[in-house]
Structure formats: C-alpha cells, structure tokens
Design goal:
The protein is of the alpha+beta class. It has helices at 11-18, 22-29, 52-57, 70-80, 98-105, 110-119, 137-142, 144-150, 160-168, and strands at 5-6, 8-9, 42-44, 47-51, 83-84, 95-96, 127-129, 132-136. Strands 2-4-3 form a 3-stranded antiparallel beta sheet. A 3-stranded antiparallel beta sheet has the order 6-8-7. Strands 1-5 form a two-stranded parallel ribbon. The longest helix has 11 residues, at 70-80.
Length: 189
C-alpha cells in the first residue's frame, strides 16, 4: 500500500455507483433521514469524500438493499490508476484540497494557487473527484523544491504545524468542516 493512493469517491461518484442523482447523496446525509452517516466521510476543502471500499459496501448496510453498479466501480478504479481499496476514513493518508494547500503555505490568495495549477507548475492532482482536485499531502510536500525554483516572490515554506495536524487528523483550519449552504443554512447553526 505504501506509495499507492487509496481509491476515493465524491458525491458525484458515490451517486454513480448506485445510479442516483448526486443530490440524493445529500438527502441520504440529511439528519431527518439518517441513511448515510456523515462520520463515514472525510472532509477535504469543505467537501465530503468516502473511501471506495465503504461506498461500494454502503448499499448492503441500509434497511433497503441498494445494488452497486460494478462497471462504475471498475471505471472509477481504472480512472484513479494503481491504488488500493480503503474502507474507513482513518485508514487514509493525509489528503489535501486547495483550502488546505493555501493554509499549508499561507498563500496570499486562492488566485495564486489557481494560477499555479492552471499553468502546470503545481503538482498534478492525485484525484479529480466531483470536479475538485485533491492531492496526497506528501505529493505536495515533495514538490516544494520545484515550487521554490519556479517562484518569483513566494517562499513556498511549509508550515510544519499545519502539515503535522493534517497527518495526525487533528487539522481544524479552513476546509476542515462542511459548511451548510442554501436557504436553511442559518437554521443549522
């Protein structure tokens, strides 16, 4: 498993596994329905992601059996490349999205990171799930020398406290929680 990334799914991929619309995942997560426990997901850049092993097994754990689409599962594995199937979030290595990367390097704006990503001078994402790029923390840290070499003014210094918090699962900075959106957002506070 070392050096390989675990297979993950976001809302869109989870929905595709069961042939439902992505909004259905949000309904399964709703406190009033409690079909899908939010604690089964990891949160990266304010969005929930699940290990593929859990997501593929989910349909067998519900009161109403749901059949996983095996071809979708196979396609997700093929798209993500060589990796391994994790079942629980605590089995996963540290995973970061744009919000965590900004905190890790104390970048002045998201535009700085977006420019790096668009120009190809930031490491290629390890996953592109539900439209969002995600990286293994170690992928980003290993790229620091190259980032420094191509930088004009940013030092690209890793905040070790943030890196350690991400590795230990204790990170509580930007992107560590899912923010409620929509007209009912104020009611949930």
């Amino acid at each position: 498993m070392h050096g390989l990334k675990p297979y993950l799914v976001g809302h869109q991929e989870f929905a595709a596994l069961y042939g439902v619309e992505p909004q259905q995942i949000g309904q399964w997560l709703a406190p009033s329905r409690r079909i899908l426990d939010p604690a089964t997901a990891i949160v990266v850049s304010g969005v929930r992601y699940w290990p593929l092993g859990f997501a593929a097994r989910f349909g067998t754990t519900t009161a109403r059996f749901r059949q996983v689409h095996v071809r979708v599962r196979e396609r997700l594995i093929a798209e993500q490349g060589k990796g391994w199937v994790a079942d629980l979030g605590d089995e996963l290595p540290a995973i970061v999205g744009q919000q965590e990367v900004m905190e890790l390097f104390h970048l002045p704006s998201q535009g700085t990171l977006a420019t790096r990503i668009a120009s190809g001078t930031f490491p290629t994402e390890d996953w592109l799930l539900s439209g969002s790029p995600l990286w293994l923390l170690e992928t980003v840290i290993e790229a620091v020398p190259a980032l420094r070499e191509s930088a004009r003014s940013l030092p690209w210094e890793v905040d070790e406290a943030v890196a350690n918090a991400l590795r230990s699962g204790a990170y509580n900075g930007p992107g560590s929680v899912v923010l409620t959106r929509g007209r009912h957002a104020r009611k949930s506070l």
